[in-house]
Each structure stands twice: as C-alpha cells, then as structure tokens.
Amino acid sequence: METMQTLAERLPQSLSxxxxxxxxxxxIVLYVGRAIHNLYFSPLSRVPGxxxxxxxEFPHSYNFMxxxxxxxxxSIHDRYGPVVRIAPNRISYSTPTGFRTIYGKxxxxxxxxxxxxxxxxxxxxxxxxxxxxxxxxxxxxPAFSVKALEEQEGLIQGYVDQFIEGLRQRKNEMVDIDSWLxxxxxxxxxxxxLDFDFxxxxxxxxxxxxxxxxxxxxxxxxxxxxxxxxxxxxxxxxSLKMMFARRxxxxxxxxxxxxxxxxxxxxxxxxxxxxxLEHANPGDLVExxxxxxxxQIVIAGAETTSTVLSGAVYLLSVNPxxxxxxxxxxxxxxxxxxxxxxxxxxxxxxxxAVLEETLRFYPPxxxxxxxxxxxxxxxxxxxxxxxxxxxxxxxxxxxFRSQDNFAKPDEFVPERWLDDHDEVFExxxxxxxxxxxxxxxxxxxxxxxxxxxRLILARLLWNFDVELCDQSRDWIEQxxxxxxxxxxxxxxxxxxxxxx
Length: 500
Fold this sequence. Notes:
Blueprint: H1 4-10, H2 13-41, H3 51-55, H4 58-66, H5 69-80, E1 83-87, E2 90-93, H6 96-104, E3 108-110, H7 130-140, H8 146-168, E4 174-176, H9 177-194, H10 200-203, H11 208-211, H12 214-226, H13 230-239, H14 241-264, H15 272-279, H16 287-317, H17 320-333, H18 342-345, H19 349-361, E5 371-373, E6 379-381, E7 384-386, E8 391-393, H20 396-400, H21 446-463, E9 464-468, E10 479-480, E11 484-485, E12 490-495
Parallel strand pairs: 2-8
Antiparallel strand pairs: 1-2, 3-5, 4-12, 5-8, 6-7, 9-12, 10-11
Helix pairs in contact: 4-5, 4-12, 8-9, 8-21, 9-16, 14-16, 16-19, 16-21
C-alpha cells in the first residue's frame, strides 16, 4: 500500500500548486472576511478608532511590545475621542466615569492575559478572583492601617536617614538619584513587608534580587502584548528563558524569606506579617499564597513610589521657579530636620500639590490594566454598549493627560491643586486623578506610599540643592511596559548645611 508521502510525490506538479494556491486563497478570504466583520458587523463597529486597529490586533501588540503602548493609545484618544477602539475587541476610555466603572464593577474581571502565573502557581493578591481577593485583603488590612503606619514611622525615618547620609557623602558628585531612591524604597518595603533588609542603601548598590525586580514588570508587559497571537506568545516565552529564570530566582528568594518569617511566629515586631498573624483567622492563611503576596507587595510597593519620587525630582529640576517655591516653603517651615515628620509634611500645601501634579503628569501605573466584561447581557459604559468578552481599559496616563479633564494637560503646573489657582484651571476635574486606582482593588498601600513620598521629597530638598545634569535633560522620554523603563537620573547635590 502506498504511503501518503508517496502519493503526494506522484501528484502532478500543477495539482500541488493548485492546492497551495487554494490554501493561500482560503487564508486571505478568512482574513478579509474577519476584517469586514470587525469593520462593519461587530457590535463594536460604531466605536471610533484607526482603520488598522479596528481590523487587527497587530498595531496594538506591536506598539506594546516596543514599549510604546502608552503614547500609542494616547494618540488614538487625541484623534478619535474619549472612547476608542484600540484593537478589534479592545476598548479604551479616557473619562473619569469610564475609569470608575471599569475598575469599580465586580462584573469586570481581571484580564487573565495581563498576568503570568507566579513560579509556585499559587495566587497572590494581584491575580486573585473576587472571593479570594476580599479574603486576602481582609487579613492584610491591619498592616496598612493608620495605627500600623504610626508604629512604623521610626523605621521609615531610619531608612531616610541612610538615604540622606549616603547622598551627603557624595555631595558635588554626579549622582544617579533614581537608583538611590530605588535602593531606599526597596530597603524600606523589604523591612516592612518581609522583615528583611536588602541593604541597598548602605552598600550603595542593588541587592542581586532587587536588581532583577523590573524583570517582572517587563515580562508581564511583553506577554500581554504577545497574547493575541498564541504562536508568537510561545516564541516569546522560549526567547525569554533567561528573564524567566531571574524571575524564578527572585520569587524563590522572597518565598524563603516569607516562609521563615511566618513560621517563626516571632512577637514584638511591626512588619506586615506581625499584623497579619495577630489579626487573621488562621483558616484564612495559605502559606504559598502569603509567599506570592509578599513578593507582589515588594515589587509594587517599592517600584511605584520610587518612580513618582524620581519623576518629582526631574520635573522640579526642569521647572526651577517651582523648585524655589517648594524649597522656600520647606526651609521656612522646618528649622530643624527633626521637625520633618509624617504629621508635619501633611501640612505643606505646595509639597502636596507638587506630588499630586507629579502623579497626574507622570503616573507610575500609566499602563491601562485590562478588564473583561463577563455579564451575558453585556455592559454599558458612558452610553457605549459592550458585549460579553470585550476587553476594556482606562490608562491613567490618558485620563490624567486629557484636555477634557485638565487644562494645559501636558504642562507641569502644581498650582492647579492649590485653592488660589489661576482661573484657567477652574474647571479642572480633580476627581479624575485616581493614581491608586479605584474600587475594591485599589492600592492597599496608598497611605504608606503617600507618607513615604512626602517625607523623602521634603527631607531631600530641605538638605540639598538639586541640579539636573545635562545627560538627563530628556530623562522623562521613556518606554513603558507595565511600568516605566527608567534610565539613570543624574543630578548634582549641594549640601546646604555643609557647603565646601
């Protein structure tokens, strides 16, 4: 009996060519048919957007893979309006109501394409479903309470002391302030969340595990971009084995730290686990889940706060008049550095305004985290009906930089947040600023991040005059994956108390 291979070899060459042509034609017809459906017959066909984005996932995937996804989506909003179609089944909003509805409604579930399973396979607070997220957040809550913050002030001030002293030893040198902020925040959150000191600041270099933390943000962004094409997803996965290996090493390290801390049951500490172990129902605690959550808190808690502070330093440096105003206010208010505390920095209006404007101008979570419509009957957002399965998002960058929400949106103007602002900002929608997200899944560490930002920026500018180096004039021109890919931020510091 002849094999299929033998039969194929005996087929007339012209017939083989016809079969190949027929297969190619079928693929073209299928693609054209799908494109026509997406353009004219899809339930989303009335939502405006670029031609190629309406018929194909490719522009969306390509731009996000390059790290240009945030400005790409912003450009679509600028041209087509507040509700746009960025891919055949993806809708983006730049309205505050859209933002609240997308992230505040339980029926809009987290998009599984956005998350790579942790190395252990155990869920953490980031990817947990609604039931598990509520349970995890409940036992974490006391660790982020006002009482917990008050008890942790001494520890946080101690790490800021290390930060200031390290910079003082390098006065008049060119310093990468972004790295110093990273080191300080990772040391701080490591101690608070893991009872572990990475000792970045003391050693003036990244701990090997911290140095690879951004890998996780980049991986999530790359896999989200590749998710539309299963074959490409597999290719990316194979191509990034080294990044996956680093990610697993980081996870395993933190897993061991959390495991040892939880099992020790040590009393008298003020780290996160002290509050969890004291207040949680033991039946609610799953060891692998605690390990994953601890890993996620370190990554999210340190990187985002550090990013905002680096952004504030840069934006003030290129706006010297505003730097002078803030410095004058801080140095007039505080005669001694010991007066700079959690409570006192909350009473400096211009400091608060600078940080609010930094969060608006340069949000650390600029990326529009995707949700999926699950209701069988669909969902209506801003009078646009979305069928079940539609992927929806609202990028903070697009919302905060929209002219519909803020006057002069592409200018850094802290004064817009003050009571005596210029009348041009009278109609600014302050409620549109939601840098810690919205709803039950908003940032659990919001209060901690706010006091860290205020305290560190106040003490930095109280102690030093900061001058931006020419190498970093265009620092803010960055790529974005899940977070910003920050280059070094070089500055020169003059110690106002020990001038040479």
